Amino acid sequence: MSNDKLRKAKEKAAEAALEHIFTGQIIGLGSGSTVAIFVEKLGEKVGREQMKIRVIPSSYQALFLAYEYGLPVLQPSDVENVDVTIDGADEIDKNLFLLKGGGAALTREKIIAYKSEKYIVIADYTKLVRYLGEKHPIPIEVLPFGWKWTLKYLEKYGKPKIRVTNSGKVGPIITDNGNLIIDLYLYESIKDPRRLEREIKSIPGVVEVGIFTRKANVAYIGYEDIIRKIEPK
Ligand code: 5RP
Question: What is the pLDDT along the chain (233 residues), one digit of tens a residue?
């Protein structure tokens, strides 16, 4: 698929999510290129319709986008609940379980997603998979303190690799929370995502894992010309 076609697919998904936006809402913002398109469209809609919304960004990327489009920003501690969160994904299975963390923003994304009344996922169609981990390793945010021990525990499940940057900085990726990202290349496919999410979370030094089993309420999957809406069974 060409970059142009992929961009159109992402735009379709981002546009579709706008139908969940109403004045007065507190909106969680995920991260990534599809969410970036959504924030641009959200900014336009808010201006056009004179809406009053506030956003909780999940990363510096989302925060800077919110500033760019003039969206008022809140901290999680400012509010009890989030009305709706719009987020991207690296993989989406048939249960609407997700694999996330391609942009290293998984921890804040999960904090916001799991607290949201409605969790809406927007993605191009390349993200649909038969099972989580089909196309990507599992992203895991870990504390720098004792990272080698954490890495050793993870060897029970697969080959762990510290994620390094390929541009803009040398050395390991440092997350918005000051931590490392380990990409775990599993020995075998995931049979029970809930169990693996729990098990990896219980390892000392693991801050968060990119397996999201808080089912999305809706996933909008964009293709070049059409949009597909998937809801949980
Ligand atoms: C960031 C994420 C993103 O949501 C995920 O990587 C999807 O990004 P894109 O919309 O660019 O494909 O999990 O941590």
Answer: 689 999 999 999 999 999 999 999 999 999 999 999 999 999 999 999 999 999 999 999 999 999 999 999 999 999 999 999 999 999 999 999 999 999 999 999 999 999 999 999 999 999 999 999 999 999 999 999 999 999 999 999 999 999 999 899 999 999 999 999 999 999 999 999 999 999 999 999 999 999 999 999 999 999 999 999 999 98
Q: How far apart are CA 182 and CA 173, in angstroms?
A: 9
| Structure-block tokens of residue 24 | 């007065």
- Domain extent, residue 78, equals 3-129+213-230
- Interval between CA 195 and ligand 1 midpoint (Å): 23
pTM: 0.96
CATH assignment of the domain containing 188: 3.30.70.260
Which positions are annotated as active-site residues? 109
Which ligand 1 atom lies nearest to the CA of residue 122? 10
Cα–Cα distance, 209 to 222 (Å, whole number): 26
CB within 6 Å of ligand 1 — which residues?
30-34, 87-90, 100-106, 109
Pocket-testing residue among 6, 35, 141, ligand 1, by greatest number of atoms within 8 A of Cβ: 35
Q: How far is CA 62 from CA 74, 157, 230, in A?
A: 12, 32, 25
